[in-house]
Amino acid sequence: MPTPQEISDAIHRVRDHATLIEHLLSRTLQWPIEDRIQKIDDIAFGWTAEELRAESLGDYLVDGQAWQIRPMRDPQPWGIFVLEFHDDRVYRTALRQVLRGLVPKRRRDANLPTWRHDNLLFICTTRDYEQITFAHFRGEKAQTARLATFGWQRDDRHVRTVCEFSLPALEWPDDDADAAEWIEQWSAAFDKERLTKDFFRRFDDAVAAVQADLERHQGLKSSAAYSAAQLLLERLIFLYFLQNRGWLNQERDYLFQKLEPHRGRPKDFTYYREFLESLFWSLASPPRGPGRLPGIPFLNGGLFDDDEFTPLSASRMKHKPPLKV
């Protein structure tokens, strides 16, 4: 199985269909596929909008067609499709249109192959391959199947989950003759339960680490340290949500960039005192208030809004900051 670092190196080399196939699918995930192609149709069949019975497909996909990677063994339980979108979005509407054209149903060309809806893997790309999204439909019926996805953007730093959990499951199976095992393995790439369990384990570990620091360095009692640690972690998680939406000064690496000046002096607690404190205050204060950080929205909620966020001066320094870290 490829290591997370090998997968990370591969996805950061993806720039077009040739590098996607060569560096990620062929060399890293070990798909038995020609790795030095010049055009997508060297290894794939084109499905037209007419064949898929999806008249508006041209509004979404390059050349108005979906590309099916040729089967790499016979029989192959999975249908693998590459969907190249015109612009910078992956449209669920187009995915469902393609799905409807690939599953068994009446009034359909009997000469075209079909698949179960949950035996289809879609590799979706946006304009200039800026974003790659792997998609899969799950559920009892195609009409009500839920769409599960994972992916990354070009030069994205935050790819740990993709590299550790999702893409390793899409390695070519050791025994590709065992269809049931293969279906189970690749479907696991979209299993959110594993991620949920890992998230809560890591969250609990992080809370415990911060709690221990607060008890040791700030002399807080165990219950107070636990509450403060949990609050800080909940706020940081929400900050990452805001960052991913582009709501922190429209910078998707805003928190990381603001951390850089403080990395060399961890014992000074400056990241919290000089930056996070100001950020929390800005999120809790109305627009045009004094001392707000630029490009930060006002959140009319309770996560960043408590009595200790009332500024005592223009610099927002407080006598009793909520967390002395």
Q: Unreliable runs, pLDDT <50, ≥5 residues? A: 307-322
Across the major sheet, the strand order is 1-2-3-4-5-6
Fraction of helical residues: 25-40%
Strand content: 5-15%
Count the beta strands: 6
Radius of gyration: 24 Å
Oligomer: single chain
Helices, by number, come to 10
Major β-sheet profile: 6 strands, mixed
Arithmetic mean of pLDDT: 88
Dominant shape: elongated
Q: How far do the termini sit from each other?
A: 40 Å
Could you describe the 3D structure shown?
With about 325 residues, the chain is an alpha+beta fold. It folds into 2 domains: about 5-190, no CATH class; about 195-310, no CATH class. It has 10 helices and 6 strands, in the order H-H-E-H-E-E-H-E-E-E-H-H-H-H-H-H. It has a 6-stranded mixed sheet. A hairpin with a 5-residue loop joins strand 4 (about 120-125) and strand 5. Helix 7 (about 190-220) crosses helix 8 (about 220-245). The chain is elongated and about 75 Å long. The chain starts with a helix and ends in a 41-residue tail after the last helix. About 30% of the residues are buried.
Brief sketch in words of this structure:
It contains ten helices and six strands; from the N terminus they run ααβαββαβββαααααα.
Write the layout of secondary structure elements.
Elements: H1 4-11, H2 17-26, E1 44-48, H3 49-52, E2 65-69, E3 79-84, H4 92-102, E4 120-125, E5 131-138, E6 146-153, H5 160-166, H6 179-187, H7 192-218, H8 222-244, H9 254-259, H10 270-284
Parallel strand pairs: 3-4
Antiparallel strand pairs: 1-2, 2-3, 4-5, 5-6
Summarize this structure as a short list of keywords or feature phrases:
alpha+beta; 6-stranded mixed β-sheet; 325 residues; 6 strands
